[in-house]
Specification:
This protein is mainly alpha-helical. It has one domain. It is built from 18 helices and 2 strands. Strand 1 and strand 2 form a beta hairpin. The longest helix is centred in the last third of the chain and has 28 residues. About 45% of the residues are buried.
Length: about 400
């Protein structure tokens, strides 16, 4: 480890331009995409705050779990290739690529996918309004929600910050990289440091802003209390990817995959504590607003532990079982995962609109919605990727 302490930045710049696909990371990213689709498929049927006549408490359990880790993990995976990409391409070329990959889809989706999605919700309350009128009111008067595409502009903002920081100090993230190399044999140390750092930014954020405060400007939105949490995940990923990623925490022969059951225990315990705190809030405290600082602090701490533990659990699973048939089932979808993320939201909401009046159990509605959302968004992405040049974006 001592031989790389001052050379990580220059080694990243000298890295070859050819890339070797990491199947474990590709599968983790595709799996997360399916988690996003599942999350949006079951939300209307949750027991608390459901928007459909039917509900199922098991979906509350799913939503609490998914909401606590999946977007943070997306930022982590995106960060893995940021620092080395900037060093290899140069900041200007890197940002140009990211504008094409993130900025263009954000603009297109903000004007098409998002209005189409939220029009399904609007029709429940204002069935007389036409789509053109609804679209014009959204764009000119607001509110103009972003749905899941807020991820795109926030990720581009992190990429921009990374370009600035890399220009100012190419070796800035070397300590994280050294920690990653150390984590090949002692992943618990990396876990502890990452948990301490992410909790240090998330706990105060939740206590100051609460869980429901959002920055909103047109289609640009992000949760105040989570933006620094997402940034910390992004830069931890970027630090791992500075150099020698295949010899660090994510090494195929690393110890993280060999202790995958430990990460499961570390995830289950804080998850159960989150539900304990939710019970205390509703049944003992009487669901007050605002919540006491001690409560917000404890909840944020459990959230932070659960989030990092699930990150390690998922990465360890796909590393440990990379040869299994079940993991390989995700491979055909890998190239289309980003496109599915972009186009799935109106499909999910219109399926929920269609299922609303049917007298079916919540489980049936949710599973029908999820399966059809996956099928239709995958088929639509496949069709869109046949457009000349579309594969550079989707």
């Amino acid at each position: 480890m001592t031989t790389i302490s001052g050379t990580i930045g220059t080694e990243a710049q000298a890295a070859p331009k050819t890339k070797t696909r990491n199947l474990s990371l590709d599968r983790a990213r595709t799996f997360l995409t399916l988690v996003v689709l599942l999350h949006h498929a079951v939300i209307p049927y949750t027991y608390f705050g459901h928007t459909d006549p039917t509900s199922f408490f098991g979906f509350d359990m799913i939503v609490l779990a998914t909401d606590s880790f999946f977007m943070a993990m997306f930022f982590f995976l995106s960060g893995l290739f940021a620092w080395s990409g900037i060093a290899r391409k140069g900041a200007q070329s890197y940002l140009a690529d990211r504008l094409l990959r993130l900025g263009l889809p954000f603009v297109i989706c903000a004007f098409t996918v998002i209005p189409l999605a939220y029009y399904a919700i609007s029709l429940r309350h204002h069935p007389e309004i036409g789509f053109s009128e609804y679209w014009w009111n959204m764009v000119t008067k607001g509110p103009w929600p972003s749905g899941p595409i807020w991820f795109l502009w926030v990720l581009f903002a992190f990429d921009l910050i990374a370009c600035i920081l890399q220009r100012l100090s190419p070796n800035l993230l070397d300590p994280i990289n050294r920690l990653s190399l150390h984590g090949r044999r002692r992943p618990a140390v990396f876990f502890a440091v990452m948990l301490a750092a992410t909790a240090a930014v998330y706990v105060p954020g939740l206590m100051i802003y609460g869980p429901s405060s959002w920055f909103e400007f047109g289609p640009f939105s992000v949760q105040h209390g989570r933006v620094l949490l997402y940034a910390s995940y992004f830069f931890f990923g970027a630090g791992i990817g500075v150099a020698h990623m295949d010899r660090g925490l994510l090494a195929a022969d690393g110890r993280m995959a060999k202790v995958s059951w430990d990460w499961m225990v570390l995830a289950i315990v804080p998850y159960c504590l989150l539900w304990t705190l939710i019970y205390i809030k509703r049944e003992i405290l009487g669901n007050p607003s605002p919540l006491p600082n001690w409560y917000e602090g404890l909840y944020a701490l459990c959230f932070a532990v659960f989030s990092v533990a699930v990150l390690f659990l998922i990465l360890a699973f796909f590393q440990r079982f990379k040869q299994s048939g079940s993991a390989r089932l995700l491979d055909p979808m890998q190239a289309d995962a980003f496109g599915m993320f972009l186009v799935h939201y109106p499909i999910a909401l219109w399926l929920q609109y269609w299922l609303f009046d049917y007298d079916l159990p919540a489980i049936v509605k949710a599973m029908v919605g999820f399966v059809l959302t996956v099928a239709f968004s995958w088929a639509l992405t496949r069709a869109l990727r046949k457009i000349p040049g579309a594969t550079r974006v989707l």
